[in-house]
Each structure stands twice: as C-alpha cells, then as structure tokens.
Design goal:
The protein has one domain. The two termini are about 20 Å apart. It is mainly α. α2 crosses α3.
C-alpha cells in the first residue's frame, strides 16, 4: 500500500462519495474507483459499500 491509496480512501470517506472525492483530489472518478478496488483487493476486504446515492464506510 502506498500513501496515495490512503489519501484516496480518506477523500472518499470524508466527502461521502467517489465522485466528490475525485473532484476534491482533481482526478477522474474512474481512476479513483479503480484505485479503491485495487486497495480493497490488496487488503482482502471491502472498505466501502458501493451504493447509487452514498457510500457507507465499512
């Protein structure tokens, strides 16, 4: 895991959505989503619950 992964996860947790987190970070939604999925795979756990309106943190 690198510090960017932690930064990306924290942005989503603080903003409440991948879209808002991506906007805050100045990156594409798809890039952030892909990085979060890779982090979840590395950690072998689901970090966020993907919903259409909001993302509860596990």
């Amino acid at each position: 895991m690198n510090w960017d992964d932690v930064k990306y996860f924290l942005a989503v947790a603080r903003q409440g959505s991948i879209s808002a987190g991506a906007k805050q970070l100045g990156i594409q939604h798809s890039t952030l989503s892909r990085r979060l999925r890779a982090l979840e795979k590395k950690m072998a756990t689901q970090l966020i619950e993907r919903k259409k309106k909001w993302l509860p943190i596990n």
